[in-house]
Design goal:
By secondary structure, the protein is mostly helical. The protein has helices spanning about 1-20, 35-45, 50-75, 85-105, 105-135, 140-150, 155-170, 175-180, 185-195, 210-245, 255-260, 260-275, 290-310, 315-325, 335-345, 350-365, 365-380, 385-410, 415-445, 450-455, 460, 465-490, 495-520.
Amino acid sequence: MSTELEDYDLKKYISFCKYFQRFSSPVLRFKHIPEEYKNQYKIKYHIDEEDVCKATFFIFISFLIPIFFLFICFINFGVLFFNLLYSLIFALIFAVLVAYNFNITIYKQIKKDEKIVNTLLSLIKINFSLMKTIKDQKSDLCLSFIRLIMDYKLPISDVFKYIYRQIHLGNVPEEELLMIETPSKDFNSYVSELMIKNFGHDYDINYYDENSTEKNFRILLKSIQTKIGIIFFTGLFFPLVLSSFILFQQIKVLFALFIAPFLLFLMYWMFKKMVRINIGLIGVLDEYSGVKEKKFNEFLLFLEVLALTLKNNYSPEIAFIKAYSKSKTHLLLLNDLFYEQISSLISLQYTFEDLINHLKLALDSPRYKILLDVIYDMLKKSAYYSSKKITDILNIIDRHRRLEEKFRLIVSGKKFLVKVFVFLFPGILGAIGGMLPLVIAIVKNMNYAENMQEISSFYDLVDMLEAIIIFSILLICTLITCYYFLKIVRHKRIYVILLISVFIFILAFSQSFMFTATFF
C-alpha cells in the first residue's frame, strides 16, 4: 500500500514539474546531476532535469515570500525580537530546505534504484555463473541473462521485460542489450563485459571484485569519526545557543518552546545522513540488535551446512532435512521455526517451494527473502552445482561482516566519551537553565530601578511560568541530545541512561534555581 502511495505521489510530482516545460522561467539547481542520472530522468520518468529545476525555483519563491512576511508579523506582534535581516535569513534557510528536498526527489529515487541493483549484483553474477556452468555451449546465454534479470524484480526489470518483448518481435538480443542504460555503473560495466566476451562459457567474471557499494562503505569508515564529532558538537551547541537567545531576548521564551523540537529534526537528519548504515550490503544489518544479529548468524550457519550437504548430490528437499538435522543443536532462535517447516515438508504437507515461501514470511526481512529467493532459484537449476555458489555467497557476506565489524569498533570507541557527555551535559545545562529566569528578570528590569526597589522577594521578580517553560525547553533538548548520543554508539540500555540523565538535569536545575533564590 505504501509503495502504491509513493508511486502516486511521484506521478503527481512529475506532472507538476512537467507543467513548467512551457515556461522560460529561471532555474534553481542545488546538485550537479551526473549525465547517467539525467538520462534516467528522461528514460524512466520522461522528464527533463531542467524542468525539475524550474519547478524548484517556483517552490523556493512560494515559500520564501510568505515565511518572510510571517516573521515580520511575529516581530510586529512582539513574539520575536528579530530585525528584518534575521527574518530574511531564517526565511531563506527554510525556503532553501524545502526547495532542496523538492529538487532531489527524483534523484533520491534513482539513487535508491541504484542501491538495490548494486546490492543484488553479486548475487546476479553468482546465479548467472551457475547458469553458464549447467548450460551447454549452444545455449543462448544472452536470452537466459535477460530472463534472469526479469525474474529478480529489480527496478530495471521492466526495461528487460520490454527488451524480451522486442526480441519476440524479431529484434536481436545483443543489440537490445547494447542500448540499455541503468542507474548502476557496476551493472552497466558487468553487461558490457558480458557483451565483449559474447557471454562465453570459458569466461567467468570474478564476482569477488570489490564493487562501488563496498568502496562507499570504506569511505564511510574513513569519515565516520569526523561525522560523529559534528553531531556531538551540534547536540551540545544547539541548547547553549538557544539559551543565549533567550537570555539576550532575541526570542521570547514562549516562542523558544516551539523552536526546541527543531533539534529533534536536526539530530534525526544528521544521524540518518552521517551515521546510520544506509549502504546496501547483503551481510550488513542496517539497524541491528543483539537478537537480530544472533538470528542472522544462525541462518548463515544453516546455509553453510546446507552447502556442504549439497555436495553429496542430494535433492534440495533431502539436503534441507539433513542440514537441519546437523545444525539444529546450534539453532537457538531459529530452531522452532525450522522444525515446524521441515516437519511439514517430511509429512508432505508442504512442497519445497511452500517451505521456502513460509520461511520468507516467518523471517519477515528483505535480507532473508533475497537470499532464500536466490538459493531457491539456483537449487531449481542444479542442486549439486549450487553447493559452490552458496559458499560463494557466504564468502561475500563474510567480507561484508568484516567491514561492519570495523564500523562497529570505531563507533564503540566513542562509548566512554558518550557516557561522560550524557551524565555531564544535563548537569551543566540544568545549572545554566536554573539561573536563566533570574538573569532574564534582572535584564528586563534594569532600566526600571524604582521597580526593583518595590520588589520584596525573589518570586515577585521571577515569572514562574517563564521558569517552567525554560525548564521544559532545556529538558526537551537534553532528552533529544542524550538519546541520539546513545543511539550513535548503539547503547543497549538507552532508556535507563536517559532516565538517569533526566534526573541529573532536574536535580541540577532545581538546585541552581534555589541557589539563585537565596542570593536575592
